[in-house]
Protein backbone atom coordinates (compact mmCIF):
# COMPACT_ATOMS: atom_id res chain seq x y z
CA UNK A 1 0.00 0.00 0.00
CA UNK A 2 1.34 3.41 -0.91
CA UNK A 3 2.29 5.53 2.05
CA UNK A 4 -0.33 8.22 2.45
CA UNK A 5 0.71 11.81 2.89
CA UNK A 6 -0.72 11.70 6.36
CA UNK A 7 1.44 8.79 7.41
CA UNK A 8 4.42 9.48 9.66
CA UNK A 9 6.92 6.72 9.20
CA UNK A 10 8.92 4.77 11.78
CA UNK A 11 12.03 6.51 10.52
CA UNK A 12 10.66 9.92 11.24
CA UNK A 13 9.73 8.88 14.75
CA UNK A 14 12.97 6.98 15.18
CA UNK A 15 14.72 10.17 14.20
CA UNK A 16 12.84 11.98 16.90
CA UNK A 17 13.76 9.27 19.38
CA UNK A 18 17.43 9.78 18.55
CA UNK A 19 17.04 13.50 18.82
CA UNK A 20 15.43 12.96 22.14
CA UNK A 21 18.70 11.62 23.47
CA UNK A 22 20.42 14.90 22.66
CA UNK A 23 19.95 18.09 24.64
CA UNK A 24 17.84 19.54 21.87
CA UNK A 25 14.46 18.32 22.96
CA UNK A 26 11.01 19.80 23.12
CA UNK A 27 9.24 20.30 26.39
CA UNK A 28 5.54 19.82 27.06
CA UNK A 29 4.79 23.55 26.95
CA UNK A 30 6.58 23.81 23.60
CA UNK A 31 4.06 21.28 22.34
CA UNK A 32 1.43 23.90 23.04
CA UNK A 33 -0.11 22.31 26.11
CA UNK A 34 -1.93 24.31 28.77
CA UNK A 35 0.56 25.37 31.43
CA UNK A 36 -1.64 24.00 34.20
CA UNK A 37 -1.16 20.58 32.68
CA UNK A 38 2.57 21.09 32.26
CA UNK A 39 2.84 21.98 35.96
CA UNK A 40 0.73 18.99 36.90
CA UNK A 41 3.09 16.75 34.91
CA UNK A 42 6.10 18.30 36.59
CA UNK A 43 4.58 17.58 39.97
CA UNK A 44 4.32 13.96 38.89
CA UNK A 45 8.03 14.03 38.01
CA UNK A 46 7.30 13.93 34.27
CA UNK A 47 9.49 16.47 32.48
CA UNK A 48 9.80 15.65 28.81
CA UNK A 49 7.52 14.06 26.28
CA UNK A 50 8.12 10.54 24.98
CA UNK A 51 8.50 10.16 21.18
CA UNK A 52 4.87 9.25 20.63
CA UNK A 53 3.75 12.20 22.76
CA UNK A 54 6.04 14.54 20.78
CA UNK A 55 4.27 13.65 17.58
CA UNK A 56 0.72 12.90 18.69
CA UNK A 57 0.05 15.82 21.06
CA UNK A 58 0.37 18.67 18.49
CA UNK A 59 -1.74 16.79 15.93
CA UNK A 60 -4.47 16.07 18.44
CA UNK A 61 -4.39 19.67 19.64
CA UNK A 62 -4.98 20.69 16.03
CA UNK A 63 -8.11 18.56 16.00
CA UNK A 64 -6.84 15.81 13.70
CA UNK A 65 -8.00 12.21 13.80
CA UNK A 66 -4.98 10.12 14.79
CA UNK A 67 -4.07 6.44 14.76
CA UNK A 68 -1.05 5.97 17.04
CA UNK A 69 0.81 2.68 17.12
CA UNK A 70 3.70 2.60 19.54
CA UNK A 71 5.40 -0.02 21.63
CA UNK A 72 4.33 -1.00 25.11
CA UNK A 73 5.11 1.48 27.85
CA UNK A 74 5.80 4.30 25.39
CA UNK A 75 3.36 6.73 27.02
CA UNK A 76 0.36 6.40 24.71
CA UNK A 77 -2.09 7.21 27.49
CA UNK A 78 -0.77 10.72 28.12
CA UNK A 79 -0.38 11.15 24.36
CA UNK A 80 -4.16 11.41 24.13
CA UNK A 81 -5.18 12.42 27.68
CA UNK A 82 -3.08 15.60 27.67
CA UNK A 83 -4.44 17.16 24.48
CA UNK A 84 -7.93 15.99 25.37
CA UNK A 85 -7.76 17.74 28.75
CA UNK A 86 -6.17 20.79 27.15
CA UNK A 87 -9.10 21.11 24.78
CA UNK A 88 -11.69 20.51 27.46
CA UNK A 89 -9.97 23.03 29.78
CA UNK A 90 -10.05 25.69 27.11
CA UNK A 91 -13.49 25.15 25.66
CA UNK A 92 -16.46 26.84 27.18
CA UNK A 93 -18.70 23.95 28.13
CA UNK A 94 -22.14 24.16 26.66
CA UNK A 95 -24.40 23.49 29.56
CA UNK A 96 -27.48 22.68 27.55
CA UNK A 97 -25.90 19.46 26.18
CA UNK A 98 -27.39 16.25 27.47
CA UNK A 99 -24.63 13.76 26.69
CA UNK A 100 -20.89 13.41 27.40
CA UNK A 101 -18.38 15.61 25.56
CA UNK A 102 -15.81 12.83 25.30
CA UNK A 103 -15.71 9.07 25.60
CA UNK A 104 -12.61 6.94 26.14
CA UNK A 105 -13.15 3.26 25.40
CA UNK A 106 -10.83 0.58 26.75
CA UNK A 107 -11.19 -3.21 26.66
CA UNK A 108 -11.03 -4.03 30.37
CA UNK A 109 -12.28 -2.70 33.69
CA UNK A 110 -8.74 -2.62 35.01
CA UNK A 111 -7.85 -0.26 32.21
CA UNK A 112 -10.98 1.80 32.87
CA UNK A 113 -9.80 2.29 36.42
CA UNK A 114 -6.24 3.02 35.31
CA UNK A 115 -7.18 5.63 32.72
CA UNK A 116 -9.75 7.19 35.07
CA UNK A 117 -7.09 7.52 37.79
CA UNK A 118 -4.59 9.10 35.39
CA UNK A 119 -7.15 11.68 34.27
CA UNK A 120 -8.26 12.42 37.83
CA UNK A 121 -4.73 12.78 39.16
CA UNK A 122 -3.90 15.35 36.47
CA UNK A 123 -7.06 17.28 37.19
CA UNK A 124 -6.41 17.16 40.94
CA UNK A 125 -2.88 18.43 40.39
CA UNK A 126 -4.33 21.43 38.60
CA UNK A 127 -5.37 22.47 42.13
CA UNK A 128 -9.05 23.06 41.70
CA UNK A 129 -8.53 25.47 38.81
CA UNK A 130 -10.43 23.11 36.61
CA UNK A 131 -13.88 21.70 37.10
CA UNK A 132 -14.46 18.72 34.88
CA UNK A 133 -16.76 15.83 35.56
CA UNK A 134 -15.07 12.52 34.82
CA UNK A 135 -16.88 9.22 35.32
CA UNK A 136 -16.30 5.53 34.81
CA UNK A 137 -18.95 3.25 33.36
CA UNK A 138 -18.77 -0.53 33.43
CA UNK A 139 -21.35 -2.98 32.20
CA UNK A 140 -21.91 -4.45 35.66
CA UNK A 141 -23.25 -1.11 36.98
CA UNK A 142 -26.95 -0.95 37.77
CA UNK A 143 -28.98 1.43 35.58
CA UNK A 144 -29.48 3.83 38.51
CA UNK A 145 -25.69 4.24 38.93
CA UNK A 146 -25.29 4.74 35.19
CA UNK A 147 -28.00 7.40 35.24
CA UNK A 148 -26.28 9.20 38.12
CA UNK A 149 -22.91 9.02 36.35
CA UNK A 150 -24.33 10.45 33.16
CA UNK A 151 -26.24 13.24 34.87
CA UNK A 152 -24.61 16.57 34.49
CA UNK A 153 -23.54 15.53 31.84
CA UNK A 154 -19.90 14.41 32.28
CA UNK A 155 -17.04 15.92 30.31
CA UNK A 156 -15.24 12.58 30.11
CA UNK A 157 -16.65 9.06 30.26
CA UNK A 158 -14.16 6.20 30.59
CA UNK A 159 -15.83 2.95 29.72
CA UNK A 160 -15.70 -0.44 28.11
CA UNK A 161 -17.46 -0.45 24.73
CA UNK A 162 -20.38 -2.58 25.89
CA UNK A 163 -21.64 0.11 28.24
CA UNK A 164 -22.70 2.86 25.88
CA UNK A 165 -25.06 0.60 23.87
CA UNK A 166 -26.38 -0.69 27.20
CA UNK A 167 -27.06 2.88 28.35
CA UNK A 168 -28.83 3.55 25.06
CA UNK A 169 -30.93 0.39 25.12
CA UNK A 170 -32.03 0.95 28.72
CA UNK A 171 -32.95 4.55 28.04
CA UNK A 172 -30.30 5.88 30.43
CA UNK A 173 -28.88 7.84 27.50
CA UNK A 174 -30.65 9.04 24.36
CA UNK A 175 -28.84 8.51 21.08
CA UNK A 176 -29.71 12.04 19.95
CA UNK A 177 -28.17 13.54 23.09
CA UNK A 178 -25.10 11.41 22.55
CA UNK A 179 -24.71 12.47 18.90
CA UNK A 180 -25.35 16.13 19.73
CA UNK A 181 -22.73 16.32 22.44
CA UNK A 182 -19.88 13.95 21.53
CA UNK A 183 -16.76 15.81 20.41
CA UNK A 184 -13.98 13.36 21.19
CA UNK A 185 -13.86 9.58 20.99
CA UNK A 186 -10.77 7.59 21.98
CA UNK A 187 -10.31 3.87 21.35
CA UNK A 188 -7.42 2.84 23.57
CA UNK A 189 -5.73 -0.58 23.28
CA UNK A 190 -7.57 -0.76 19.97
CA UNK A 191 -5.87 -4.01 18.99
CA UNK A 192 -7.71 -5.71 21.83
CA UNK A 193 -11.16 -4.17 21.52
CA UNK A 194 -12.41 -6.55 18.86
CA UNK A 195 -10.80 -9.64 20.34
CA UNK A 196 -12.66 -8.94 23.57
CA UNK A 197 -15.87 -9.39 21.56
CA UNK A 198 -16.90 -5.75 21.30
CA UNK A 199 -17.41 -5.65 17.53
CA UNK A 200 -21.20 -5.38 17.64
CA UNK A 201 -21.07 -2.75 20.39
CA UNK A 202 -18.60 -0.70 18.42
CA UNK A 203 -20.70 -0.95 15.27
CA UNK A 204 -23.76 0.20 17.19
CA UNK A 205 -21.75 3.09 18.55
CA UNK A 206 -20.33 4.12 15.18
CA UNK A 207 -23.80 4.70 13.86
CA UNK A 208 -24.29 7.55 16.34
CA UNK A 209 -20.80 9.07 16.42
CA UNK A 210 -21.26 12.50 14.82
CA UNK A 211 -19.25 13.31 11.70
CA UNK A 212 -17.43 16.20 13.40
CA UNK A 213 -16.25 14.10 16.34
CA UNK A 214 -12.45 13.88 16.64
CA UNK A 215 -11.50 10.19 16.82
CA UNK A 216 -8.26 8.79 18.20
CA UNK A 217 -7.11 5.20 18.08
CA UNK A 218 -4.20 3.99 20.22
CA UNK A 219 -2.57 0.60 19.90
CA UNK A 220 0.64 -1.25 20.78
CA UNK A 221 0.52 -3.53 17.76
CA UNK A 222 -1.02 -3.40 14.36
CA UNK A 223 -3.50 -6.03 13.26
CA UNK A 224 -6.40 -6.57 10.94
CA UNK A 225 -8.63 -5.62 13.89
CA UNK A 226 -6.99 -2.22 14.15
CA UNK A 227 -7.47 -1.72 10.41
CA UNK A 228 -11.13 -2.69 10.73
CA UNK A 229 -11.68 -0.21 13.54
CA UNK A 230 -9.82 2.48 11.69
CA UNK A 231 -12.13 2.09 8.71
CA UNK A 232 -15.18 1.85 10.90
CA UNK A 233 -14.69 4.97 12.96
CA UNK A 234 -11.94 7.33 11.78
CA UNK A 235 -12.03 9.92 9.04
CA UNK A 236 -8.84 10.30 7.02
CA UNK A 237 -6.60 9.98 10.09
CA UNK A 238 -2.93 10.74 10.59
CA UNK A 239 -1.13 7.46 11.08
CA UNK A 240 1.72 7.57 13.59
CA UNK A 241 3.69 4.37 13.59
CA UNK A 242 6.46 3.46 15.93
CA UNK A 243 8.10 0.15 15.09
CA UNK A 244 5.83 -2.76 15.70
CA UNK A 245 5.64 -6.52 15.78
CA UNK A 246 6.65 -8.10 12.51
CA UNK A 247 7.79 -4.77 11.15
CA UNK A 248 11.05 -3.43 12.51
CA UNK A 249 12.68 -6.21 14.45
CA UNK A 250 15.07 -4.33 16.66
CA UNK A 251 12.50 -2.17 18.35
CA UNK A 252 9.75 -4.52 19.43
CA UNK A 253 10.94 -4.68 23.03
CA UNK A 254 11.95 -1.34 24.55
CA UNK A 255 15.72 -0.84 24.36
CA UNK A 256 15.94 -0.43 28.10
CA UNK A 257 14.88 -4.02 28.84
CA UNK A 258 17.49 -6.76 29.06
CA UNK A 259 16.19 -10.18 28.12
CA UNK A 260 17.57 -13.45 29.45
CA UNK A 261 16.65 -17.08 29.30
CA UNK A 262 17.42 -20.29 31.12
CA UNK A 263 17.10 -23.69 29.54
CA UNK A 264 15.66 -26.24 31.96
CA UNK A 265 13.33 -29.19 32.00
CA UNK A 266 9.67 -28.65 32.78
CA UNK A 267 10.21 -30.37 36.10
CA UNK A 268 13.18 -28.21 37.05
CA UNK A 269 11.36 -24.92 36.62
CA UNK A 270 10.43 -24.81 40.30
CA UNK A 271 14.06 -25.44 41.23
CA UNK A 272 15.29 -22.66 38.95
CA UNK A 273 12.80 -20.07 40.08
CA UNK A 274 13.67 -20.91 43.66
CA UNK A 275 17.33 -20.29 42.88
CA UNK A 276 16.55 -16.99 41.14
CA UNK A 277 14.44 -15.64 43.98
CA UNK A 278 16.07 -17.19 47.01
CA UNK A 279 19.59 -16.30 45.93
CA UNK A 280 18.30 -12.84 45.00
CA UNK A 281 19.62 -12.97 41.47
CA UNK A 282 16.80 -10.91 40.04
CA UNK A 283 15.76 -7.45 41.09
CA UNK A 284 12.45 -6.75 42.71
CA UNK A 285 9.65 -6.06 42.02
CA UNK A 286 9.02 -9.08 39.85
CA UNK A 287 6.01 -10.11 37.85
CA UNK A 288 5.93 -13.88 37.27
CA UNK A 289 3.77 -15.31 34.51
CA UNK A 290 2.16 -18.74 34.41
CA UNK A 291 -0.16 -20.09 31.74
CA UNK A 292 -2.71 -21.69 34.04
CA UNK A 293 -4.31 -20.58 37.28
CA UNK A 294 -3.46 -23.94 38.88
CA UNK A 295 0.21 -23.46 38.04
CA UNK A 296 0.06 -20.00 39.60
CA UNK A 297 -1.17 -21.51 42.87
CA UNK A 298 1.32 -24.35 42.71
CA UNK A 299 4.11 -21.82 42.39
CA UNK A 300 2.77 -19.65 45.18
CA UNK A 301 2.45 -22.61 47.57
CA UNK A 302 5.90 -23.85 46.66
CA UNK A 303 7.57 -20.47 47.20
CA UNK A 304 5.70 -20.05 50.48
CA UNK A 305 7.41 -23.15 51.83
CA UNK A 306 10.70 -21.31 51.43
CA UNK A 307 9.38 -18.19 53.10
CA UNK A 308 8.96 -16.30 49.81
CA UNK A 309 5.67 -14.44 49.83
CA UNK A 310 3.79 -13.64 46.68
CA UNK A 311 0.32 -12.63 45.54
CA UNK A 312 -1.82 -14.09 42.79
CA UNK A 313 -3.66 -12.28 40.01
CA UNK A 314 -6.00 -14.00 37.58
CA UNK A 315 -9.34 -13.70 35.81
CA UNK A 316 -11.14 -15.79 38.41
CA UNK A 317 -10.80 -13.23 41.20
CA UNK A 318 -13.51 -10.64 41.82
CA UNK A 319 -12.93 -7.26 40.24
CA UNK A 320 -12.47 -5.32 43.47
CA UNK A 321 -9.82 -7.76 44.60
CA UNK A 322 -8.01 -7.53 41.29
CA UNK A 323 -7.96 -3.76 41.41
CA UNK A 324 -6.77 -3.83 45.00
CA UNK A 325 -4.02 -6.34 44.23
CA UNK A 326 -2.81 -4.08 41.42
CA UNK A 327 -2.89 -1.04 43.69
CA UNK A 328 -1.00 -2.84 46.44
CA UNK A 329 1.60 -4.16 44.04
CA UNK A 330 2.02 -0.72 42.47
CA UNK A 331 2.34 0.81 45.92
CA UNK A 332 5.16 -1.64 46.68
CA UNK A 333 3.39 -3.61 49.40
CA UNK A 334 4.75 -6.89 48.06
CA UNK A 335 7.55 -7.85 45.72
CA UNK A 336 6.30 -10.83 43.76
CA UNK A 337 3.09 -11.05 41.80
CA UNK A 338 2.20 -14.32 40.05
CA UNK A 339 -0.08 -13.51 37.15
CA UNK A 340 -1.93 -15.75 34.75
CA UNK A 341 -2.59 -13.69 31.67
CA UNK A 342 -5.90 -13.54 29.94
CA UNK A 343 -5.33 -15.20 26.57
CA UNK A 344 -3.63 -18.07 28.29
CA UNK A 345 -6.45 -18.47 30.78
CA UNK A 346 -9.12 -18.69 28.12
CA UNK A 347 -7.29 -21.50 26.40
CA UNK A 348 -6.79 -23.44 29.57
CA UNK A 349 -10.49 -23.87 29.90
CA UNK A 350 -9.94 -26.75 27.50
CA UNK A 351 -6.37 -27.89 27.70
CA UNK A 352 -3.05 -26.32 28.09
CA UNK A 353 -1.08 -25.66 24.94
CA UNK A 354 1.64 -28.18 25.56
CA UNK A 355 -0.80 -31.05 25.58
CA UNK A 356 -1.31 -31.21 29.33
CA UNK A 357 -5.01 -31.70 29.34
CA UNK A 358 -6.27 -30.47 32.66
CA UNK A 359 -7.52 -33.00 35.17
CA UNK A 360 -11.20 -33.53 35.92
CA UNK A 361 -10.75 -31.64 39.14
CA UNK A 362 -9.14 -28.65 37.55
CA UNK A 363 -11.80 -28.67 34.86
CA UNK A 364 -14.20 -27.97 37.67
CA UNK A 365 -12.44 -24.63 38.02
CA UNK A 366 -12.69 -23.99 34.31
CA UNK A 367 -16.40 -23.75 34.97
CA UNK A 368 -15.77 -20.91 37.37
CA UNK A 369 -16.81 -17.87 35.42
CA UNK A 370 -13.73 -16.06 34.24
CA UNK A 371 -14.21 -12.37 33.82
CA UNK A 372 -14.22 -11.55 30.14
CA UNK A 373 -13.46 -7.89 30.85
CA UNK A 374 -10.33 -8.78 32.79
CA UNK A 375 -6.93 -8.03 31.36
CA UNK A 376 -3.81 -8.63 33.35
CA UNK A 377 -1.21 -7.87 30.76
CA UNK A 378 -2.28 -5.68 27.93
CA UNK A 379 -2.08 -2.04 28.80
CA UNK A 380 -1.86 -2.43 32.57
CA UNK A 381 0.70 -0.02 33.92
CA UNK A 382 2.44 -2.01 36.64
CA UNK A 383 4.64 0.48 38.47
CA UNK A 384 8.35 -0.14 38.94
CA UNK A 385 8.41 -3.77 37.89
CA UNK A 386 12.07 -4.47 37.39
CA UNK A 387 11.90 -8.12 36.39
CA UNK A 388 9.39 -10.09 34.37
CA UNK A 389 9.79 -13.86 34.72
CA UNK A 390 8.19 -16.22 32.25
CA UNK A 391 7.81 -19.26 34.48
CA UNK A 392 6.01 -20.72 31.49
CA UNK A 393 6.46 -19.36 28.00
CA UNK A 394 3.48 -17.58 26.47
CA UNK A 395 1.85 -19.34 23.56
CA UNK A 396 2.67 -16.75 20.97
CA UNK A 397 5.24 -14.09 20.28
CA UNK A 398 2.78 -11.20 20.75
CA UNK A 399 2.08 -12.56 24.24
CA UNK A 400 5.80 -12.43 24.97
CA UNK A 401 6.07 -8.82 23.82
CA UNK A 402 3.14 -7.74 25.98
CA UNK A 403 4.42 -9.61 29.04
CA UNK A 404 7.91 -8.14 28.75
CA UNK A 405 6.32 -4.74 28.11
CA UNK A 406 5.28 -4.63 31.79
CA UNK A 407 8.85 -3.65 32.65
CA UNK A 408 11.04 -0.92 31.20
CA UNK A 409 8.06 1.41 30.97
CA UNK A 410 8.68 4.97 29.86
CA UNK A 411 12.31 5.74 30.77
CA UNK A 412 12.79 2.96 33.34
CA UNK A 413 15.10 0.00 32.95
CA UNK A 414 14.11 -3.61 33.38
CA UNK A 415 14.99 -7.22 32.76
CA UNK A 416 13.23 -10.42 31.86
CA UNK A 417 14.09 -14.04 32.49
CA UNK A 418 12.33 -16.82 30.59
CA UNK A 419 12.48 -20.40 31.81
CA UNK A 420 12.36 -22.46 28.64
CA UNK A 421 11.71 -26.20 28.64
CA UNK A 422 12.45 -28.43 25.63
CA UNK A 423 8.74 -28.42 24.76
CA UNK A 424 8.82 -24.63 24.62
CA UNK A 425 11.86 -24.36 22.35
CA UNK A 426 9.74 -23.95 19.25
CA UNK A 427 7.90 -20.89 20.53
CA UNK A 428 11.16 -19.58 21.97
CA UNK A 429 12.82 -19.81 18.55
CA UNK A 430 9.84 -18.06 17.03
CA UNK A 431 10.12 -15.24 19.57
CA UNK A 432 13.87 -14.93 18.98
CA UNK A 433 13.47 -14.70 15.26
CA UNK A 434 10.81 -12.04 15.72
CA UNK A 435 13.02 -9.96 17.98
CA UNK A 436 16.32 -10.00 16.19
CA UNK A 437 18.31 -11.58 13.44
CA UNK A 438 21.93 -11.78 12.39
CA UNK A 439 21.88 -8.17 11.23
CA UNK A 440 20.62 -6.90 14.54
CA UNK A 441 22.93 -8.83 16.79
CA UNK A 442 23.23 -6.19 19.43
CA UNK A 443 19.62 -5.44 19.97
CA UNK A 444 16.79 -7.41 21.42
CA UNK A 445 18.79 -10.55 21.92
CA UNK A 446 17.64 -12.96 24.56
CA UNK A 447 20.90 -13.94 26.24
CA UNK A 448 21.53 -16.91 28.54
CA UNK A 449 21.10 -15.78 32.14
CA UNK A 450 24.64 -15.19 33.34
CA UNK A 451 24.34 -15.10 37.13
CA UNK A 452 23.29 -18.61 38.04
CA UNK A 453 25.86 -21.39 38.11
CA UNK A 454 25.13 -25.06 37.82
CA UNK A 455 26.54 -25.64 41.30
CA UNK A 456 24.23 -23.08 42.80
CA UNK A 457 21.22 -24.78 41.26
CA UNK A 458 22.31 -28.28 42.19
CA UNK A 459 22.91 -27.35 45.79
CA UNK A 460 19.22 -26.50 46.08
CA UNK A 461 17.95 -29.52 44.19
CA UNK A 462 17.37 -31.95 47.00
CA UNK A 463 15.35 -29.57 49.10
CA UNK A 464 13.51 -28.10 46.11
CA UNK A 465 12.40 -31.49 44.82
CA UNK A 466 11.31 -32.57 48.26
CA UNK A 467 9.15 -29.50 48.71
CA UNK A 468 7.79 -29.69 45.15
CA UNK A 469 6.45 -33.19 45.94
CA UNK A 470 4.61 -31.83 48.93
CA UNK A 471 2.70 -29.31 46.80
CA UNK A 472 0.16 -31.83 45.58
CA UNK A 473 -2.74 -31.30 43.19
CA UNK A 474 -5.10 -31.52 46.14
CA UNK A 475 -3.17 -28.83 47.99
CA UNK A 476 -3.30 -26.61 44.90
CA UNK A 477 -7.03 -27.18 44.47
CA UNK A 478 -7.78 -26.43 48.10
CA UNK A 479 -5.69 -23.26 48.10
CA UNK A 480 -7.28 -22.04 44.93
CA UNK A 481 -10.75 -22.55 46.36
CA UNK A 482 -9.71 -20.98 49.66
CA UNK A 483 -8.17 -17.98 47.96
CA UNK A 484 -11.28 -17.46 45.87
CA UNK A 485 -13.48 -17.63 48.97
CA UNK A 486 -11.22 -15.18 50.81
CA UNK A 487 -11.18 -12.79 47.90
CA UNK A 488 -14.95 -12.87 47.48
CA UNK A 489 -15.32 -11.94 51.14
CA UNK A 490 -12.53 -9.37 50.78
CA UNK A 491 -14.16 -8.01 47.69
CA UNK A 492 -17.32 -7.09 49.60
CA UNK A 493 -15.26 -5.58 52.43
CA UNK A 494 -13.16 -3.73 49.91
CA UNK A 495 -16.14 -2.24 48.16
CA UNK A 496 -17.58 -0.91 51.39
CA UNK A 497 -14.23 0.23 52.72
CA UNK A 498 -13.08 2.04 49.62
CA UNK A 499 -16.27 3.98 49.38
CA UNK A 500 -15.25 5.62 52.65
CA UNK A 501 -11.44 5.49 52.40
CA UNK A 502 -10.49 5.36 48.75
CA UNK A 503 -6.79 5.75 49.44
CA UNK A 504 -6.45 3.14 52.14
CA UNK A 505 -4.38 0.33 50.70
CA UNK A 506 -3.60 -1.56 53.83
CA UNK A 507 -6.93 -3.07 54.71
CA UNK A 508 -6.25 -6.44 53.23
CA UNK A 509 -3.12 -8.32 52.37
CA UNK A 510 -3.11 -10.27 49.15
CA UNK A 511 0.20 -12.00 49.65
CA UNK A 512 -0.98 -13.91 52.69
CA UNK A 513 0.15 -17.48 53.21
CA UNK A 514 -2.25 -20.05 51.76
CA UNK A 515 -0.57 -23.19 52.94
CA UNK A 516 -2.18 -24.73 56.02
CA UNK A 517 1.18 -25.68 57.49
CA UNK A 518 3.59 -22.84 58.21
CA UNK A 519 6.86 -23.01 56.26
CA UNK A 520 9.60 -24.90 58.07
CA UNK A 521 12.18 -22.47 59.55
CA UNK A 522 15.07 -24.44 58.03
CA UNK A 523 13.68 -23.85 54.53
CA UNK A 524 13.50 -20.08 54.88
CA UNK A 525 17.24 -19.47 54.72
CA UNK A 526 19.80 -21.09 52.50
CA UNK A 527 22.77 -22.01 54.71
CA UNK A 528 26.09 -20.55 53.63
CA UNK A 529 27.69 -23.94 53.04
CA UNK A 530 25.15 -24.58 50.29
CA UNK A 531 25.86 -21.35 48.49
CA UNK A 532 28.02 -21.50 45.43
CA UNK A 533 30.62 -18.69 45.82
CA UNK A 534 30.14 -17.32 42.29
CA UNK A 535 26.38 -17.14 42.63
CA UNK A 536 26.73 -15.68 46.10
CA UNK A 537 28.90 -12.95 44.59
CA UNK A 538 26.32 -12.36 41.85
CA UNK A 539 23.58 -12.07 44.48
CA UNK A 540 25.61 -9.44 46.29
CA UNK A 541 26.09 -7.51 43.07
CA UNK A 542 22.36 -7.54 42.40
CA UNK A 543 21.78 -6.21 45.94
CA UNK A 544 24.40 -3.52 45.44
CA UNK A 545 22.87 -2.57 42.14
CA UNK A 546 19.49 -2.23 43.80
CA UNK A 547 20.98 -0.06 46.52
CA UNK A 548 22.79 2.06 43.91
CA UNK A 549 19.50 2.57 42.15
CA UNK A 550 17.90 3.69 45.38
CA UNK A 551 15.65 0.66 45.68
CA UNK A 552 14.04 1.21 42.32
CA UNK A 553 15.01 2.68 39.04
CA UNK A 554 12.63 5.62 39.22
CA UNK A 555 14.54 6.99 42.17
CA UNK A 556 17.73 6.88 40.16
CA UNK A 557 16.06 8.65 37.29
CA UNK A 558 14.71 11.40 39.52
CA UNK A 559 18.17 12.06 40.83
CA UNK A 560 19.42 12.55 37.32
CA UNK A 561 22.03 9.80 37.42
CA UNK A 562 20.17 7.31 35.34
CA UNK A 563 22.83 6.40 32.80
CA UNK A 564 25.65 6.09 35.28
CA UNK A 565 23.84 4.07 37.89
CA UNK A 566 22.18 1.76 35.43
CA UNK A 567 25.24 0.89 33.45
CA UNK A 568 27.74 0.66 36.22
CA UNK A 569 25.58 -0.70 38.96
CA UNK A 570 23.59 -3.34 37.22
CA UNK A 571 25.40 -6.66 36.99
CA UNK A 572 22.99 -7.86 34.35
CA UNK A 573 24.05 -4.93 32.22
CA UNK A 574 27.74 -5.34 32.70
CA UNK A 575 27.67 -9.07 32.15
CA UNK A 576 25.28 -9.03 29.29
CA UNK A 577 27.67 -8.14 26.49
CA UNK A 578 29.61 -11.26 27.07
CA UNK A 579 26.47 -13.26 27.51
CA UNK A 580 25.13 -11.99 24.24
CA UNK A 581 28.24 -13.00 22.40
CA UNK A 582 27.94 -16.47 23.85
CA UNK A 583 24.33 -16.65 22.81
CA UNK A 584 25.26 -16.16 19.21
CA UNK A 585 28.31 -18.32 19.10
CA UNK A 586 26.40 -21.53 19.50
CA UNK A 587 23.93 -20.78 16.75
CA UNK A 588 20.17 -20.99 16.90
CA UNK A 589 19.58 -24.01 19.06
CA UNK A 590 22.25 -23.33 21.62
CA UNK A 591 21.13 -24.00 25.17
CA UNK A 592 21.74 -21.83 28.21
CA UNK A 593 24.92 -22.49 30.05
CA UNK A 594 23.13 -24.19 32.91
CA UNK A 595 20.62 -25.81 30.76
CA UNK A 596 19.28 -29.19 30.10
CA UNK A 597 21.67 -31.54 31.81
CA UNK A 598 21.09 -30.79 35.44
CA UNK A 599 19.89 -34.30 36.24
CA UNK A 600 23.39 -35.61 35.70
CA UNK A 601 24.75 -33.83 38.73
CA UNK A 602 25.30 -35.20 42.15
CA UNK A 603 22.63 -34.38 44.67
CA UNK A 604 23.55 -32.07 47.48
CA UNK A 605 21.78 -32.97 50.65
CA UNK A 606 20.97 -30.19 53.10
N1 LIG B 1 6.75 11.68 29.22
C1 LIG B 1 6.86 10.76 30.16
N2 LIG B 1 7.94 10.73 30.97
C2 LIG B 1 8.07 9.79 31.93
N3 LIG B 1 7.14 8.85 32.18
C3 LIG B 1 6.04 8.82 31.40
C4 LIG B 1 5.84 9.77 30.36
N4 LIG B 1 4.66 9.52 29.76
C5 LIG B 1 4.13 8.46 30.39
N5 LIG B 1 4.94 8.04 31.37
C6 LIG B 1 4.76 6.89 32.27
O1 LIG B 1 5.08 5.73 31.51
C7 LIG B 1 4.31 4.63 31.93
C8 LIG B 1 3.75 3.93 30.70
O2 LIG B 1 2.83 4.75 30.03
P1 LIG B 1 1.50 4.18 29.32
O3 LIG B 1 0.76 3.29 30.25
O4 LIG B 1 0.79 5.32 28.73
O5 LIG B 1 2.17 3.30 28.18
P2 LIG B 1 1.45 2.64 26.93
O6 LIG B 1 2.19 3.10 25.72
O7 LIG B 1 -0.02 2.92 26.97
O8 LIG B 1 1.76 1.11 27.17
P3 LIG B 1 0.86 -0.19 26.84
O9 LIG B 1 0.87 -0.36 25.35
O10 LIG B 1 1.54 -1.29 27.54
O11 LIG B 1 -0.51 0.12 27.34
C9 LIG B 1 3.26 5.20 32.88
O12 LIG B 1 3.65 4.90 34.21
C10 LIG B 1 3.31 6.68 32.66
O13 LIG B 1 2.99 7.40 33.84
UniProtKB/TrEMBL annotation:
UniProt KW keywords: ATP-binding, Helicase, Hydrolase, Nucleotide-binding, RNA-binding
InterPro entries the record matches: DEAD/DEAH_box_helicase_dom (IPR011545), DEAD_box_RNA_helicase (IPR050079), Helicase_ATP-bd (IPR014001), Helicase_C-like (IPR001650), P-loop_NTPase (IPR027417), RNA_helicase_DEAD_Q_motif (IPR014014)
Entry annotated with the keyword Ion transport: no
Source taxon at top rank: Eukaryota
Domain spans labelled Helicase ATP-binding: 57-240
PANTHER family: ATP-DEPENDENT RNA HELICASE RHLE-RELATED, DEAD-BOX HELICASE 56
Family membership noted in the UniProt record: Belongs to the DEAD box helicase family. DDX56/DBP9 subfamily.
Descriptive protein name: RNA helicase
